Amino acid sequence: MVFHTALRALELELEPVNMAGFVMNQPMFGGKRRTRSEIKFATDQLVPLPALDLTWELALPVGADRDHVYCNPVVDGPHRRKVPLLGRFLVIGFEGDPMFDRQQEFVKMLVLCGVRVMAKLDEIGFHGIDLVDPRRARIIMSLIKDFVRR
């Protein structure tokens, strides 16, 4: 939602509001092709693959597949022309998240399009770790504060 909101905001006259940056904490992405992290964590307790697939089935327009731009923003399409116009992004992800590979692909796409990205892709952690580990929640909040202050 953050990515698509950022794209839509480009079309609006928001003065005096300035969208200086966007925070994506463990963003949910998908696609038809299965990634290594999706396969590795297919039976994840928090976000198993069948739950992810069902979420996309319910969220996407009727007849759309998981390579629809809302699910898979790295696919080619007219939205890609607008990506270089976006402000800064903070993307936070953890290697134990089934969507980790897609988060990395998203960061790569942003960088290749010239977007300024602060990526915190941590080897230790899982989707939702900040909900169960107060120390990790504080670290994430600190990252967000640092990003906002820059």
TrEMBL record:
Which is one GO molecular function term here? Answer: hydrolase activity
Any Pfam family the entry gives: Abhydrolase_3
Q: Where is the Alpha/beta hydrolase fold-3 domain?
A: 2-129
* Top-level taxonomic group: Eukaryota
List the InterPro entries hit by this protein, alphabetically. Answer: AB_hydrolase_3, AB_hydrolase_fold, Carboxylest/Gibb_receptor
What family, per the record? Belongs to the 'GDXG' lipolytic enzyme family.
Q: PANTHER family of this UniProt entry? A: ARYLACETAMIDE DEACETYLASE, CARBOXYLESTERASE 9-RELATED
Identify this protein by name. Alpha/beta hydrolase fold-3 domain-containing protein
Q: Which organism is it from?
A: Liquidambar formosana (Formosan gum)
Organism phylogeny: Eukaryota, Viridiplantae, Streptophyta, Embryophyta, Tracheophyta
